[in-house]
Amino acid sequence: MSWEGLTPMAKIEVIVDGDQVPAVRELFLEAGATGYTGVSGVSGFGHHGHHEGRLLFNDRAGLSMLITVVPEEAVNSLVAGIRRLLEGRHGVFFVSETHVSRPDYFR
Predict the structure, then answer these.
(1) Which domains does the chain carry?
(2) Which of 36, 40, 43, 96 could bond to 53 as cystine, CB 3.0-4.6 Å?
(3) Do the beta carbons of residue 63 and residue 51 sit within 8 Å?
């Protein structure tokens, strides 16, 4: 695969209870993210057992995943903020290297 012409960045994926979504969005924006994608009704299995993807009563009752792409220099502060947010709560986050074709969309 050719990476020529692509700019390295970092992709951050955060899975949290729906009531934590506003705090994650705020962390993304404070870190300089220019946007994010949110997916509600996330299902899965982990340390806290099985989570259904369907929403019972509202969008805060289930799990949500938020995804953003930021320049590599924004990763450390964003990761520190997410770690603080998740202290004492369940949730996970993933950081991976990605490459984008339009870096101006993410700066």
Answers:
(1) 7-106 (3.30.70.120)
(2) 43
(3) yes
